Amino acid sequence: MAFLTLRDFQAARKHIEPHVHRTPTIGSETLSRMTGFDVVLKAELLQKAGSYKVRGPLNVLANMSEEAKARGLITSSAGNHAQGVARAARIHGVPAVVVMSKAAKPAKIEATRDYGAEVVIHGEVWDDAYARSLEIMKERNLTYVHPFDDPQLIAGQGLVGLEMIEDVPDLDVVVVPIGGGGLIAGCAMAIKAIKPDVRIIGVEAKQSPAMRRSLDAGQVTPLDSFGPMIDGLVVKRVGDYTFDVVREFVDDVVLVDEERIFETVILIMERLKLVPEAAAAAPVAAILDGLIEAAPGTKVGCILSGGNLDLSALKGMAWN
């Protein structure tokens, strides 16, 4: 297994940096007081297209052959990866097809179309959309962009962690949400390439522990069932490459109750004046629930991975 090195992340940065924000890492007195840690937040929810997901596809496209790009792209996504691929494809002038499950939020579907991608709706969960995207890939001879299990994509996603450790060199612990594992794989390798003793902790939704189950089994093990559809946290099966990286570089994976994740979304909005989606709130929920074992005053970083929250429930509430 060939893991990524600091050189891989630095190469990816050259392709990605001109097209993205360097999102800030900010301290939180509120969360520090509530947890006893010295808490900082990587505000990737302020990223273009609303999440870190734009970073990886930019690196994939920069390394893709002209022949592969000319055929057009296809991917599958519950939302954020869809927007990331669509935006990256528009930047590179490449047509893109995105297969999204019925669980995808209308706002994310519309945003993906606004970036110029063709959207196909299929299946109940991401894994259904993934299967259909492979069929369309063969039917139309398109080039596939995997949402998490691709080292070039992971090199792009890992810039989130690289920027964080550069901005806060004295970090002791970094807490990262896990879906398919691309973000935590990239962040773990990037951060530990600079500071090997930083503890990397992954967070999954309690009813959808695809990575935790695989780690416990010693091999990639699909889920038989899963909980509420939380974009960015719920997949039936993690990636083969991401599993190997997590097993090698991640110190622990903890499980957070879904209700606590949703409550934490509201807390962050109320107290921190930021608008995270549920996956982004999961690391904060983990530290609030005492799932991260560390001494008081430990410098703990949480990655707020995205802010594409479906606000449709708020429509019509004004003036009530």
From TrEMBL:
Entries under InterPro entries matching the protein: Ser/Thr_Dehydratase, TrpB-like_PALP, TrpB-like_PALP_sf
Required co-factors: pyridoxal 5'-phosphate
Keywords: Lyase, Pyridoxal phosphate
Residues covered by the Tryptophan synthase beta chain-like PALP domain: 16-306
UniProt-listed Pfam families: PALP
Keyword Lyase: yes
Source organism superkingdom: Bacteria
Protein's UniProt name: Threonine/serine dehydratase
Natural source organism: Sphingosinicella rhizophila
